[in-house]
């Protein structure tokens, strides 16, 4: 069994609030279902991974196109997305996240969180009923490291080291699960962790065999138990 698991938040435990994202689209083009917003997120992340760095304009344009927004409305929708979506809007709990996290913690492995955020990720996780540090009514994790609070963000290896130090575990034998190749996989690898790329759509743009992939937290549980 691996010694510890660190998890990303956006795209793994929490998703953009579809009600917020709808504000960018309704009145211009249709009203997509919540599941379509999730699909758009993963397609947009893959598009930014493919160019080698996270570009918000590429993310937003791919997101809009993935929802079927016609080209003539794209600029308006992207402008609206820029206006309405902030770092505080990752408030929809990802499908299967709570159950998968509870299964992971139940294996006995140490679990922590590492997220690029705005200093608010612990509150968003607690507000969504996902997890908390220490004892309480929610699933227990050992640490929540938020880039906005510690002053360093992924893919810098230092943010992973902060989490490892807080948990008292080594990089060797620790898994990091995140939904971006350039930020999460590359950062975890540089820090000496075992990266697991979270890709529910199986759409990683990197060459086959470059790194491991999972499509759900249930798969993470199986990999952690099997070592």
UniProtKB/TrEMBL annotation:
One of its GO terms (biological process) is small molecule metabolic process. InterPro entries: HAD-like_hydrolase, HAD-like_sf, HAD-SF_hydro_IA, HAD_sf. Its cofactor is Mg(2+). One of its GO terms (molecular function) is hydrolase activity. It holds the Pfam family Hydrolase. Gene3D superfamilies: HAD superfamily/HAD-like. Transmembrane segments: none annotated. SUPFAM superfamilies: HAD-like. The keyword Magnesium applies. Keywords: Hydrolase, Magnesium. This is HAD family hydrolase. It comes from Kutzneria albida DSM 43870. The lineage of its organism: Bacteria, Bacillati, Actinomycetota, Actinomycetes, Pseudonocardiales.
């Amino acid at each position: 069994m691996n010694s510890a698991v660190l998890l990303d938040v956006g795209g793994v435990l929490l998703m953009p609030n579809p009600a917020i994202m709808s504000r960018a689209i309704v009145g211009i083009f249709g009203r997509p279902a919540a599941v379509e917003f999730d699909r758009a997120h993963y397609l947009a992340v893959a598009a930014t991974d493919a160019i080698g760095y996270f570009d918000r304009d590429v993310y937003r344009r791919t997101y809009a196109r993935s929802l079927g927004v016609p080209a003539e409305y794209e600029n308006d929708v992207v402008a609206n997305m820029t206006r309405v979506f902030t770092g505080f809007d990752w408030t929809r709990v990802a499908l299967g996240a709570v159950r998968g996290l509870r299964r992971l913690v139940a294996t006995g492995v140490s679990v922590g969180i590492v997220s690029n955020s705005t200093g608010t990720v612990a509150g968003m996780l607690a507000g969504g009923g996902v997890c908390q540090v220490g004892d309480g009514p929610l699933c227990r994790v050992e640490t929540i490291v938020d880039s906005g609070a510690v002053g360093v963000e992924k893919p810098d290896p230092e943010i992973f080291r902060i989490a490892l130090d807080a948990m008292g575990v080594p990089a060797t034998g620790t898994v990091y699960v995140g939904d971006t190749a350039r930020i999460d996989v590359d950062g975890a690898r540089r820090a000496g962790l075992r990266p697991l790329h979270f890709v529910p759509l199986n759409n990683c743009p990197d060459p086959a065999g470059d790194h491991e992939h999972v499509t759900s937290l249930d798969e993470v549980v199986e990999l952690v138990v099997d070592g």
